[in-house]
């Protein structure tokens, strides 16, 4: 079975186990602020209209991001037109910037959705280094993308601007670890946040619990939007 199929199977098992073992004191089906998700002190502006904005902060070299990616992708697909989803690559250090530029270059080429899981697999299963300008270009050549087109975009003002904007979002959302999910510019959660109450459970169960919390928050925000009662946000 391929890497991502194994991961998805593990997470699916976690969902089933979760319903049988998680007690009322830490129930993702009835999430509690503070233990299952946090509310930002300063809500951030969104531009998703009537849809619920969902943002994932991630890092290609993060094994937890790689492990969660298949089930998160399936969750996003399940939401359909209810949400507007975007990924934001983080940069906790300057050495992270090449991977930010890699993601935004692939996004500009219309290849981000296709290649993100393949990059995770290359890094975390095949042990390839894809984290510097040189190693990124070597990977791009290896998979057969147009080298010159990639370089033109990789070094472009547009991609550099998106990388700087990602750093600003990371700071605004107070991202201190990845993966992290932000919903409607107000709520943040993650497998790590939910996992505090599930510390003795497998990572797959913590991931599944986080998805349940996300279901709850998306439904909450969608209901507020439908009722016209979404709190105002500072622009």
From TrEMBL:
Residues 20-159 form the Thioredoxin domain. SUPFAM superfamilies: Thioredoxin-like. GO terms for cellular component: periplasmic space. Residues 1-26 form the signal peptide. InterPro entries: DSBA-like_thioredoxin_dom, DsbA/DsbL, Thiol_disulfide_DsbA, Thioredoxin-like_sf, Thioredoxin_domain. Keywords: Disulfide bond, Periplasm, Redox-active center, Signal. Pfam families: DSBA. GO terms for molecular function: oxidoreductase activity. It is found in: Periplasm. Belongs to the thioredoxin family. DsbA subfamily. This is Thiol:disulfide interchange protein DsbA.
């Amino acid at each position: 079975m391929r890497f991502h199929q194994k991961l998805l199977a593990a997470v699916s098992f976690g969902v089933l186990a979760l319903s049988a073992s998680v007690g009322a004191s830490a129930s993702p089906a009835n999430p509690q602020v503070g233990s299952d998700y946090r509310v930002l002190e300063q809500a951030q502006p969104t531009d998703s209209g009537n849809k619920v904005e969902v943002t994932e902060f991630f890092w290609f070299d993060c094994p937890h991001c790689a492990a969660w990616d298949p089930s998160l992708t399936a969750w996003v697909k399940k939401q359909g037109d209810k949400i507007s989803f975007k990924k934001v690559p983080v940069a906790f250090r300057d050495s992270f910037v090449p991977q930010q530029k890699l993601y935004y270059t692939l996004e500009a080429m219309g290849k981000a959705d296709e290649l993100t899981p393949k990059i995770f697999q290359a890094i975390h299963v095949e042990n390839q280094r894809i984290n510097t300008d040189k190693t990124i270009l070597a990977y791009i050549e290896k998979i057969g993308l147009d080298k010159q087109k990639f370089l033109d975009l990789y070094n472009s003002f547009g991609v550099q601007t998106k990388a700087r904007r990602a750093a600003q979002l990371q700071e605004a959302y107070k991202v201190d670890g990845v993966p992290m999910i932000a919903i409607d510019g107000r709520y943040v959660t993650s497998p790590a946040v939910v996992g505090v109450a599930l510390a003795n459970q497998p990572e797959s169960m913590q991931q599944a619990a986080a998805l349940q919390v996300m279901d709850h928050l998306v439904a909450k925000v969608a209901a507020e939007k439908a009722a016209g009662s979404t709190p105002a946000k500072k622009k």
